[in-house]
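Dear support,

Our group has been running a series of protein-ligand predictions, and this particular one with 2-(butylsulfanyl)adenosine is the one our PI (initials K.S.) wants archived with full inputs and outputs. We had some confusion internally about which version of the output was final, so please treat the block below as the authoritative record. The input we submitted was:
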Amino acid sequence: MSPEEAATRVASLRTEIRRHDYLYYVRDSPTLDDAAYDRLFEELKQLEETFPHLVTPDSPTLRVGGELLEGFESVQHTAPMLSLDSSQDEAALRRFDDRLRKSLLKEGDSTPVEYVIDPKLDGLSVELVYQDGVFLRAATRGDGRKGEAITENVRTIAAVPLRLRNTDRPVPKLLAVRGEIILQLAGFEKLNESLVAAGKDPFANPRNAAAGTMRQLDPQITASRPLDVYVYDILAMEPAEESAAPSEITSQWQVLEALRDWGLRVNDRPRRGTSVEDILQYHREIGAARDDLPYEIDGIVIKLDALTARERVGMTSRFPRWAYAFKFPPRQEATRIEDIIAGVGRTGVITPVAVLEPVLLGGVTVSRATLHNREEVARKDVRPGDLVRVQRAGDVIPQVIERVEEPDRDRGEPFRMPETCPSCSTVLVERGPFTVCPNSFECPAQLAARLTHFGSRNALDIEGLGEETAKALIDQGLVRQLPQLFDLRPLQLLELEGFAEKSATNLVAAIAKAAHAELPRFLFGLGIPEVGVTVARELARHFRTLEAFRQATDEELQEISGVGPRMAEEIRAFFDQASNQKVLDELLDGRLHLQAMPQTAETADGNAPFEAKTFVFTGGMERFSRPQAAAAVEKGGGKVVSSVSRKTGYVVVGADPGSKYKKAQDLGVEILDEAAFLELLTAHDLVS
Ligand code: IVH
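Confirmed final output from the archive:
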């Protein structure tokens, strides 16, 4: 490709990628599947590698996290970032409204008061600056005048556009906006799980996690965490020179519209109101929805809509008079630990659970909180009888944050993990910081949850096998082990409460249908620790049959993308457990008829010429980008892997190959140059 052609292609790829980022992250309505998106992205990356002069600061590829930072520079905000007066108290809210109305009248403004009310996001306040539409800088709030430049970290947040959208609304010459960086609850839970698994301290709440992540000196770490942003205010703006009449923005509502037009992510819940009653109504509604929101909020913010009126009322010594935060009751309280017990989770992980004196946390009574694992209990040094601070975030399981010191009190004995499973008495094993009951399918505490998981939507999708039914089946002694699920007869189910002839026949039919499940669903349904939907699919694609997968060595497992040493160890441990082997044997003995993994695609000669063959690429090719080459290989039923082993099918060597070339020679793996690779593809009609 000539440099000119490359420049054109790079520009069009960036336009496409930006459009899809916008649709995906800002509008929540993607129009492209992940694989197709990845191909665009890979192609852009390859072109930028080949033609480095084409890299620009707003290229989507720069999101992945570049150089390590030395520290954070202090920067002056474009305009002061004020903080808000706040309370949880309705009377205080009424006083705010009252004062504001009086102060408007005093300034001679008698137009009816209109407010914009929106959720108060519990995150990290940031300033984002765009110059000529290109993302220039981001800073923390700091002391309100100066903050820390966290530009490189913010660049990794996919919801932050690196370039503003050009629509009918001209992009300003300079635009400084204010917003909130948050970590969605799902991401927060996952992050904490992985921190705990790595023996590190989990974050106390999503806010701390977002703040901690933004202060990472390694943007790669930031990039790996699913941060999000919502913007809600314009701090400063200089209109574009060419726009003779800059579209006038006179209200907060128009601010939000403009931000949205420029492609920035704006929360979808703001509402207009005119009275304290409207505000209270919104507070109630959002309060009720609070647990279902995918992010943490700690109240609502009320802002005067008219911007000129805001200027008129100005500020007190500390806060603007035109805005107010009306907060929700806190979700952190102190209470006493009555006991620490050991709970058995779905995958057999034994979790120390604090039994608490019941306490009201943000409107919900909490009487249990997780202590994660034995190391965590030791680190926090909490014992029965101790006073502790507990916290709840959304639907996340309540957590014990810390112990409150009480110097004069005699403390109880430290907690010790049991040696045997509280449910099935099997001797527990230690895996990293976790203590695990290895008796997966025969441990009653695991069985109900495992059955439910086995029948869940992404697993065998057995309609009618919910948590309640699973429990009932076990309680009635109808299912003592997983394989018995497939032996159930409608007549037996009639014994269960809530089952009639029709529902019983339906469940048995659904189970019979599930017996012909696809391999990836079954693998996911096994509930092997750490093996999620995506990895299960990769594993199934690679091994094709359950038998092959069961036999895989640690090394073979680690060749698969997404499988690290830890997961490989979990998989091996799962299959090495005698009781699990028995369950699998019984399942395969006439009960389950798993479908082998389907071929990737039909090829011209009707089969998959590269079936079970792996390809490794090294060096640059002329005719193919890597994704194109990989797509062709996969179309033929083969797979691309990144490292060369004796088992590698072919190593395709392009210009300036790396060490893989030598390794292929050393191991005697078949080597193809680009021409030979092309020939091979052509022979099987795989070139598009
Ligand atoms: S408006 C001067 N709107 O809450 C008014 N702030 O306690 C500017 N916050 O530091 C703030 N969600 O970081 C506004 N929808 C929202 C908000 C919000 C969260 C934060 C903001 C501020 C803090 C004040």
